[in-house]
Amino acid sequence: MVVGNPPHFSVWPKMYDLHKSKIEVLKTVDKMWHLHKKFYNAVNEILNPNSNIVLVENKKGSNPSIFRSMLDKNLVYVGTIEPSMQQIIGAIRINLLNSRTPLYRVVAQYNRLFNLAIKTLILTKSIKNWIAEFENFYFFWCKNIK
To answer: Can you list the alpha helix ranges (DSSP code H) found in 82-135?
Structure first.
């Protein structure tokens, strides 16, 4: 299985500040999707038969049809996974539980309280907007069939 989080945009997004470091640009932009194309062309050489590939992508920069067109005869599109708000909140919870920060202890000990707090925080505009940003992400899933 290959899981990746490649750059999400083929050009620099207008919504971002243009004064970023070169490394930020490299992490954000895959010009004309060259990196994605090279990846999909080469990945069959290292995969076992029936291996899965899941890449995190961003709706603001792409759509699944862009990547479906890059798949060769040995890669089959399985689907696109778009997490629900409840799944996003669950992922944030898991992230907090795995962080081993002081907040971890609170989340671990007071699970019901955490769930209630998250539901309450969802009602505040800034938290709602922050979590809504996660809704822009989707998972592009394909499978090697060679």
So the answer is: 85-99, 102-109, 111-122, 125-134
